[in-house]
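During the second year of the project, the team shifted from modelling isolated chains to modelling whole assemblies. The rationale, set out in the original proposal, was that interfaces cannot be judged from single-chain predictions alone. As a representative example for this report, we include one of the complexes processed in the last quarter. Its constituent sequences, exactly as entered into the pipeline, are reproduced here:
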Amino acid sequence: MFNPQLNAHGELQHLLSLDGLPREILTAILDTAAPFTEVAEREIKKLPILRGKSIFNLFFENSTRTRTTFEIAAKRLSADVINLNVATSSTNKGETLLDTVDNLCAMQADMFVVRHASSGAPYLIAEHLRATDRHDIHVINAGDGRHAHPTQGLLDMYTIRHYKQDFTKLVVAIVGDVLHSRVARSQIAALTTLGVPEVRVIGPKTLMPTGLDKLGVRVFHDMREGLRDVDVVMMLRLQNERMNGPLLPSGQEFFKVWGLTPDKLALARPDAIVMHPGPMNRGVEIDSTVADGAQAVILPQVTFGIAVRMAVMSMLGRG
Amino acid sequence: MLPLPDADTLLAALIDQMAPHVTEDTALVGIYTGGAWMAERLHEALDIRHPLGTIDVSFYRDDYGAKGLHPQLRRSDIPFDMEDRPVILVDDVLFTGRTTRAALNELFDYGRPARVDLAVLVDRGERQLPICPRFCAHTLAAPLGSGQRLQLKKADDGSLSLRLIDV
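Output from the structure prediction step:
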């Protein structure tokens, strides 16, 4: 079957989604990321791998944090980074997505990092590049609609492997608004591919997509029941813009039932780690005591995120 | 093809060469993998005060684009202050000089060393860059040709030996 993410030699051509990537590729990305974590400790935090390459951050949806981590990763690899805040530029003047891409290709782009509110936008760009024979230009999906956020999923896997080593003995819980979460989809795909035997998804019925059981996960609508004896708790961000709508009561109400508090965390294994993709809503999905507690690995996730993005860019940009 | 020299004998000769030039300030940096194994031995035998450094130069190679990253990348580790320090770079086999060039670039990203010397077990010649070792235990009399790779191997019992591999 044709896989748009791999080239003819089975190597990574674009990173669009963790769904459909073989375990060897996922493991190779995590292995490549490991030595990059050390670069941050040097006096000169730069490697010459992508010297002379131009990477365009194409953010059709605002996200300062994700854009910044991609920018830092690219700069640590010595690439030239051009940030396009497309939300306020030519698409507003009526230019289509692919015309924007063609224009940037004419400026000798080597890689696009794409964030878009519509699911599938990075696929559209990758397919356009393939159809026009531009195989030396690569696309990284930095989050598309409700579909995928593969580098977030990868940095989560890196974090789990860092603290727990072996995926094949773990019980992992994903908690919160799964319905709107591209992060959750990427996490489920990666955890399953890497051999985690039990992935639990915990949240209110109104925030669960249908067909979750087909992904091979166990669904819980009782947080205490779902957290029992888990090794890893992955919290999801509750998006403020969804609050007070038909799906949800107030933030305080959500916190009461679905917020991660010390007493709920006590049901997990004593050495369980707590993760969050950020930005956190303290007092909505996570209690401050837990967020700042000894089991939280939320800030290491951010640091690992740079190394993982460096790994992906270095694997794509070697051509 | 002549039999390859014994690695332990060469190491002993290298230690004799280096000993008079090692000071309190000297630090050692081994290049993965063969150079790092050697550097461990040298570090102990020469009684070097600073902890041993190790580097993987893959990120700095000029053929990175063509070769890509090999999957067994190691973390570089420089556990001492590079600034103003005399450093001896250790590699098992010196060939084109491109690995040494990459290693020099990497070292300077940690600071400005006072001087850098190169210690190798075997110089197989055929240099493509202006690089010359200060300490060298053995020089091959005739070129091997690019189809053969000479490298240090480490057995399960920790013993080191030189091997010739067809590539």
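The domain at 23-148+305-316 of chain A is CATH 3.40.50.1370 (Rossmann fold). Chain A touches chain B through 18 residues (CB under 8 Å).
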